[in-house]
Amino acid sequence: MFKLIRKIEDLNSWHASNSKAIGLVPTMGNLHVGHLSLVNKSLNENSVTLVTIFVNPKQFGPNEDFAEYPRTLERDCELLKEELDKFSGKELVVFAPASTDEIYPDGFSTIISVNGISEILCGADRPGHFDGVTTVVHRLFNISKASTAYFGQKDYQQVKVIQRMVLDMGLQIDIKTLPISRDEDGLARSSRNQYLTTEARQMALTLPKTLSQIEKLLTSDSWLNSGVEINKILETSLSDKRWNYLEIKDANNLNEVTPNTNKVVILGAFKVDKTRLIDNRLVKINYA
Ligand code: PAF
Question: Is residue 183 part of a domain?
Fold first, then answer.
């Protein structure tokens, strides 16, 4: 069964008649194969899946693409119905608030802010971005009453920030992360890829290619032995202003790598024209 809900009061009425555990897939819409793989996983694991579609103004900076962000609700619903058709006896509810007031009613004044981890990497480039994310995700967790939420690994820092919030606030929700979905040329799928011209897309491939280069070095030798080669790549890349950052962090907590680190994440943000793209690679390492 498929249902589209546009108002909080209707969502609450629906909750009153639902007794099953809910899997939540929070999105900003303009769904692609990556989102659909999260929805597929939730449909597999839960009787009821709730997909939220809300372009959250609080996570966009003043000069970012909030106004242009693609809003394609009708097409998104068609794609979700096709995904649901692959299952029998499942329920898929889409909550796409009819207006921003449904999420942030008049007088809304709360900000959920996770210190430290929100301020590095994307948080340093986009001040306030993660406060917007955690504020809306906390609200979505509450209104969805979900027991599990599904996120993509492409937004690795986002997942880490949300996991920290869940832990700190004692929220009763299980966070699951699914691998990055890529197009055939290796570019991580993102709603923002559609802003790229053919030429810009070629340039954007610098991002996954550089991450692969570093990954290869880290899998073929220890952290200490591969250091010199990796530092050369980091230095050369970062002298190109299109890189917002290119860093390697402990995958557990995004802290600096230490002799106790056994898994790292290589994270990059790369800007082509006005389009900012992010990507990452998780790699098991031997420190020495
Ligand atoms: O990853 C996204 O699409 C957004 O940051 C999210 C989690 C839906 C919050 O607006």
Answer: no
Mutate to test the pocket of ligand 1, among 136, 138, 278 (most ligand atoms within 8 A of CB): 136
Q: Kindly state whether residue 185 falls inside one of the protein's structural domains.
A: no
Domain end marker among 178, 211, 243: 178
Tokens matching residue 131: 């406060």
Q: Find residue 101's DSSP bridge partners.
A: none
What's the pLDDT tens digit per position in 141-160?
Answer: 999 999 999 999 999 999 99
Q: What is the pLDDT of residues 85-95, one digit of tens each?
A: 999 999 999 99
Q: Which residues contact 146 (CB under 8 A, 6 or more apart)?
A: 22, 23, 24, 50, 173
72 CA to centre of ligand 1 in angstroms: 16
Share of the chain above pLDDT 90, in %: 100
Residue 154 lies in domain: 2-178
pTM of the shown model: 0.97
Give the CATH number of the domain where residue 261 resides: 3.30.1300.10
CB 25 within 8 A of CB 38: yes
What residues act catalytically?
Answer: 35
Instruction: Name the domain count of the chain.
Output: 2
